[in-house]
Amino acid sequence: MGIVVKRILVRGFTILPKGASTLRMPIKIDGYYDDWLDKPISYLHYGNKNYSNKVSMLIDDNYVYLYIKMNDAAYTKFNGYNYNFRYEGNQTSFLIEGGDNIGVGRYQLRVRNQDGWTIVKDSNAYITRYSLASTAGFKSDEAEIQIPIAAIQKNANGNSISFNSPNLGPQWVTAVGTSTAPFLGIGISILIALGGYLFFKKKRKQIKS
User: Total structural domains in the chain?
Assistant: First the structure.
């Protein structure tokens, strides 16, 4: 029986189990997004669901992985400011830098601590820009990000880490699990897998960089 993750929305928190990144393919941060094909998607927005931004968050023993797809209806450009993570009540904020003044193509970004402006060691991020237009009818930006759990909180075991960015919506996304048994408690939901397949129906596509 295949393993597919359920999403549970509780008081504005989307709960994603730890270990989900190993469902079918590992996450590789390289600006190609087909390894997110079978991963659960959350929708962050301010009131109007037609302007939802798609977010997926996964964790393993060492890293937090984020996938961001800006909405196609409006505000199609990626914004890397105020990427906030919480662990046991403590919040750490990051800036995903380098996506402001770019053309069409695939670009590597920098992850900085918002407090101190230092580059986060062992982090990685990519953005793909499909159009210079930022209005409805044009394909929106995609990005994927890797941040070490240790950069969020020293000695954190990654059992429950939450993410929010006010540029995406007021909701928080939370990944949960145990470091010793990341697959325990993972639910079965064929609808999520099907939805992911339809959303990521393209394979790796070379884009001018």
Answer: 1
Phi/psi class of residue 185: alpha, beta or left (left: φ > 0; alpha: ψ in -120 to 50)? left
- 131 falls within a domain: yes
The confidence score (pLDDT) of residue 155 equals: 67
Summarize pLDDT for 79-127 with one digit per residue, the tens: 999 999 999 888 999 999 998 889 999 999 999 999 889 999 999 999 9
Q: By percentage, how much of the chain surpasses pLDDT 70?
A: 68
Residue 62: which domain range? Answer: 8-199
**Is 174 within a domain?**
yes
Helix, coil or strand: residue 49:
helix
The tokens for 86 are 């919480």
Residue at 183 is within a domain: yes
Element (H, E) at 136: none
CA distance 57 to 48: 22
- Predicted TM-score (pTM) of the model is 0.73
Residue 7's nearest CA partner among 180, 188, 152 is 188
205 falls within a domain:
no
